[in-house]
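COMPLEX REQUEST
Ligand: calcium ion
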Amino acid sequence: MRSFKCGIKLALVALSFVGVASPAFARELSPEQVNVLQTNFAKADVNHDGQLTPQEVTAMPKIAPAFSKIDSDGDRLITLPQILAFIASH
Ligand SMILES: [Ca+2]
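STATUS: Structure written out below.
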């Protein structure tokens, strides 16, 4: 769990470096919403590898329908940064 949280933090830092965390991103997701998303992601990530398979993502009903759009690199796995990037761009 500790390494997962650390990974999330790193991912968020990485996001801000690549410019995904734009002002629009800041407007649309409050820290509380990001927290909820992180919590739900952690619950859905059954094998704790920091990625959701199509099967794991069924635990996130709001995210599941957009799986193929969120999966920007097409590897059939979605990460929290990919979800955040998707939300930020919609
Ligand atoms: Ca997983």
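REMARKS: The chain has one domain: 2-88. Residues 17-26 have pLDDT under 50 and may be disordered.
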